[in-house]
Amino acid sequence: MARVCQVTGKGPMAGNNVSHANNRTKRRFLPNLQYRRFWIESENRWVRLRVSNAGLRTIDKNGIDVVLA
Fold it and tell me: 49 lies in which domain range?
């Protein structure tokens, strides 16, 4: 599925644009996805993931080996 973080599973959310006159039109809130390469020491290779900013923070905190396991 497109626009989904491969670490956290975050995807688009639905909501409203709200004007000053309180008119509401539907919109989508998209996650902040980035393509990043991560070096996997145990497999001696690069892995390319599409991760959100929250996913990057999770990888920084726990390590890429723990997140991918």
Answer: 13-68
User: What's the chain's Rg over C-alpha atoms?
Assistant: 16
User: What is the CATH number for 19?
Assistant: 2.30.170.40
Residue 21 forms part of a structural domain: yes
Q: Span 30-48, mean pLDDT?
A: 96
Mean local confidence (pLDDT), 40-44 = 94
**Distance between CA 67 and CA 21 in Å, rounded?**
45
Helix intervals (H) in 1-69: 53-62, 64-68
DSSP 44: T
Q: Which long-range contacts (CB under 8 A, 24 or more apart) does 12-15 make?
A: none
This prediction's pTM:
0.83
Q: What is the average pLDDT score of the chain?
A: 96
Number of domains in the chain: 1
